[in-house]
Amino acid sequence: MKNLAFAAAAALTTTGAILTAPAIFAQETPSAPGAVDASRITGGTYALDPSHTLVDWQVDHFGFNDYIGLFGNISGTMTMQPDNINDAKFDIMIPIADVTVASAQLKDHLLRPGKDGGQPDFFGPEPGMAQFTSTNVRQNGDTTAIVSGMLDMNGKAGPVTMLVEFTGAGTNPFNKKETVGFQARATIDRTDWGIMYGQGLVGNDVDLTITAAFEKQ
Q: Can you tell me the distance from the alpha carbon of 165 to that of 170, in angstroms, rounded to the nearest whole number?
C-alpha cells in the first residue's frame, strides 16, 4: 500500500513538472537585445567587433557552381551621426592571410608565391591587408544607404560601391557596449586588383556579402 501511494505521488509530481515546464521556460526566454530601430543609435565613433564581423565571397567555379570563402579578424572604425547618415565614414582593414576556405590545398594556392619569383596566381605569401575607405555615403531608404569608397588590395586600388542595410542596434548584454549591425553587398571584378588566374574557367566577378557589428567607443 505504501508503495502504491509513493508511485501515485511520484506520478503526480512528474505530471505537475511536465505541465509547469513550458511556463517556466517561457518566463526564462530572453528577448534579442538588438532591433531595427534607428532611435537606438547614438552618434560617435564605433569600432568593429572582429569576432562577429565576416566577409563572405563567392566566385563562379568552372561554370558548375559557386565556391564560397570567408575573411575574418576584420578591424576598422565607423564615425556617424544618426541625424546625418550622409556624413558617415568607414575605414575597414581585412587580413588576407586569414582567409578561410574548405580546402587546405586551395588556401595554399591562394597564398602561394609566384613561380620563379614571378607574379602569384592570387595573393602570395605576404598579402598584407585589404583596406576599404569610404568616400561617399548616401542614404536611399529608411534602413539602407549606398556606400562608395576605395579598396586597396593586392598592391592595387580601385573603386567599390556597396548597398548597406541597417540590421539592428542595442546594448550588448555581455560587454554592455552600444552595438550597431549592418549587412552589405557588392560585386567586384578580381582582375581590377591583378588577380588573373584561371580567366575563362573561374569567374572574374566576385560577390561580397559583409555582416558587420560596430561597438561604440
A: 16
The answer to whether residues 74 and 54 touch, using CB atoms and an 8 Å cutoff, is yes
Burial label for 1, CB within 10 Å (0-12, 13-18, 19+), is: exposed
pTM: 0.85
89 lies in the same domain as 187? yes
**Domain identity same for 72 and 161:** yes
> Is 36 part of any domain?
no
Give the mean model confidence (pLDDT) for residues 69-74: 98
Place of cell 506520478: 11
Which residue range is the domain that position 147 belongs to?
Answer: 42-216
The pLDDT, as a whole number, for residue 22 is 55
Predicted confidence band at 116 (pLDDT cuts at 50, 70, 90)?
confident
**All cell numbers assigned to 138:** 548616401
- Residue 209 is which amino acid? T
Above pLDDT 90, what percent of the chain?
84
Based on the fold, state whether residues 110 and 207 are members of the same structural domain.
yes
Asked if 128 and 192 sit in the same domain, the reply is yes
